[in-house]
Design a protein that fits this description.
435 residues, mainly beta, Jelly Rolls, 2 domains, 17-stranded mixed sheet, 3-stranded antiparallel sheet, 32 strands, disordered C terminus
Length: 435
């Protein structure tokens, strides 16, 4: 077979049909990146490069020293390597002040809340620590904890949904148990405790996002990625399948012969490194920082795990491109920080319904709000489009790989070569309470 590779691809060693052992490229204490995993409405980022705030892009890699803020109708989520999340509600500003590797092998993440309301769902890995600072207070999380911090002009309220928290204040530590809250007077350094948690207008959004992550994540991510972030999106928006000679592969739903993985995204300039690719697809994190895209007859473009993890400076990596394929090329326009690429179709949303078309690859489908994407993909394969209902909450029902076998057609369908997979639905049950 003839192999096509993106020039300058010395960052990644492709492993075909063999071990999926990953070698993360984390050479120093500040080599970590986290993922901007959700962008709704007006979200901005200050990349700590002297240029101030600019429009934030989904799947943008966040590094130490950068700031994220949401405007009137904006919401955002940051996802960390182990799947822990930080969610920003409208009119919220945060700074990622520290992303470090500890001598113990754990990770230290420190976020400063400058204004607004955030939710943190920290999974509490061994030796990991998640520090949250607001005003003169500091909340250090070392075990699994789910908290909400609301910072106002004169006070701040910390509510604990899961686990327990200790807030260090100028007058001493304050312990907050599960289902309790504490209000801090920022002027007098006084505090008061409540044995309940008052509801907030953003609680339902946070709950939906947590349920989505719980339903579509699994413990087998180490088989195809060194990190957990992005796992739930891979499981919701596409399917894994095994192919002799290649091992485990993944492909998004709603793709045909005319689709390629670089139809929607942006070239983003990283000072000191050059341009890197940022995918616009909701699942577009892990497949663009790890592994290789390969074109297979009768299947189309598929992603194969393996090799070494790439950091913020990610470049397209591919094999066996079809005849006539125009490979993605580094921009030749100097000085432009973001160059958008939009060649693929987008779904059309009308009220509580959405029309999904072939080659949209999940673009524009809100997380967890469409049932049974695997079955809908088969309808799109046959008809070219499908209209379906958007549900208010994250829902189970899409087929996804859960470590078992998958059934996959080997014959090309009406979309010119893309195939659909059929799985037993194995979504996790969601909790009935708030978290």
């Amino acid at each position: 077979m003839s192999h096509s590779r993106f020039p300058q691809q010395l960052l990644l060693t492709v492993i075909l049909g063999g071990s999926l052992t990953a070698i993360p490229c984390l050479a120093d204490s500040q080599a970590r990146i986290v993922r901007l995993s959700e962008v709704q409405g007006d979200v901005q980022i200050d990349r700590n490069n002297g240029q101030g705030y600019e429009r934030a892009l989904l799947n943008f890699p966040i590094t130490q020293g950068e700031k994220i803020r949401t405007l009137e109708n904006g919401r955002a989520e940051l996802e960390f390597e182990d799947g822990s999340t930080l969610r920003l509600t409208p009119r919220t500003a945060t700074a990622v002040s520290r992303l470090s590797l500890l001598g113990s092998g754990g990770k230290l993440s420190e976020v400063q809340v400058e204004e607004g309301t955030i939710y943190v769902n920290f999974f509490g890995g061994t030796d990991d620590e998640f520090d949250l600072t607001f005003a003169r207070e500091k909340l250090a999380l070392k075990r699994a904890t789910h908290v909400r911090i609301a910072l106002g002009d004169a006070d701040a309220v910390v509510a604990v949904f899961k686990g327990e928290a200790e807030v260090v204040t100028p007058t001493g530590p304050v312990e907050i148990a599960k289902g309790h809250a504490a209000r801090f007077d920022l002027a007098s350094d006084q505090h008061s405790l409540a044995n309940n948690v008052d509801a907030d207008a953003n609680d339902s959004w946070d709950k939906q996002q947590s349920q989505y992550q719980q339903q579509y994540s699994d413990n087998s991510y180490s088989n195809y990625s060194p990190y957990a972030y992005g796992t739930s999106d891979l499981n919701y928006y596409g399917s894994f399948f095994a192919l002799p000679g290649y091992g485990m592969l993944w492909q998004p739903y709603f793709v045909g012969a005319g689709w390629d993985p670089w139809m929607n995204g942006a070239w983003t300039l990283f000072p000191g490194s050059g341009y890197g690719w940022v995918s616009s697809y909701p699942w577009g994190w892990t497949p663009y920082h790890y592994g290789t895209w390969t074109f297979l007859p009768l299947y189309g473009w598929v992603w194969q795990p393996g090799g070494a993890w790439m950091g913020d400076y990610a470049l397209p990596t591919f094999l066996d491109a079809p005849t006539g394929f125009a490979p993605p090329r580094l921009p030749s326009i100097p000085g432009r920080r973001v160059i958008l690429v939009s060649r693929g179709p987008r779904p059309t949303q009308l009220g509580n319904k959405i029309e999904i078309v072939s080659n949209s690859a999940g673009l524009g489908i809100p997380r967890g709000r469409v049932r049974s994407l695997d079955r809908l993909a088969q309808s799109v394969e046959q008809k070219g489009f499908v209209t379906t209902k958007l549900h208010a909450n994250s829902v189970a029902g899409s087929g996804w790989w859960h470590g078992g076998s998958s059934v996959r057609s080997s014959a090309g369908g009406g979309n010119g070569g893309s195939t659909s997979s059929s799985h037993s639905s194995a979504g996790h049950a969601s909790s009935g309470g708030h978290h």
